[in-house]
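Chapter summary example.
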Amino acid sequence: MLKWSDVLRFTKEGNPEPDRRVEFSESDWRARLTPEQYRITRQKGTERAFSSEMCSLFEPGLYACVCCDTLLFDSEEKFESGTGWPSFTQPVRPNTVAYVADNSYGMRRVETTCNTCDAHLGHVFPDGPRPSGLRYCINAVALTKVDRMAPAGESPA
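The structure predicted for these 157 residues follows.
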C-alpha cells in the first residue's frame, strides 16, 4: 500500500518503471481524443468540479486511462470525497501512476500522470481516508470505466 512518504519519494527520486510505454505525436493525440480529453490529459487541464456523474457512481469495475487503456484504479478504492472529482485511495498497482511535483498557481501539490503515456490525471493529496491517507483527485475525463473482467495491468480493449 502506497503512503504519502512513497509519493514524496517518487517525486524526488523518480517513478517506478511502467510495464509498457505508449507515445504518439501531438497531432496523433489530437486525432485520437476529443477536444476536452486532449485539453485535460495532454495540456494539464482541469474539468469543472461536479461536472461528471462519475463522482457519484460506485458500481464495481476498473478505471483505465482514456489515452492508452492502462488500468489505473479499482472501484473498491473509490470514495466520496465531496470535492467534485472522482477520488481513490490507491492505484491498481504502484507503477501505473507517476508523480510530479507541481508548484503552479502558488501551491505545492503533487500531479498524477499515467505512467504509461504521461496523460495528466489530476493530483494526489495526503488527506484521504485510512489506512493509506491518500486522496487521488482525478479528472473524470481522463478515465474510462471498464469491465472488471480485464486482468489488472492489461488493456481492456
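To summarize the output: The radius of gyration is 14 Å.
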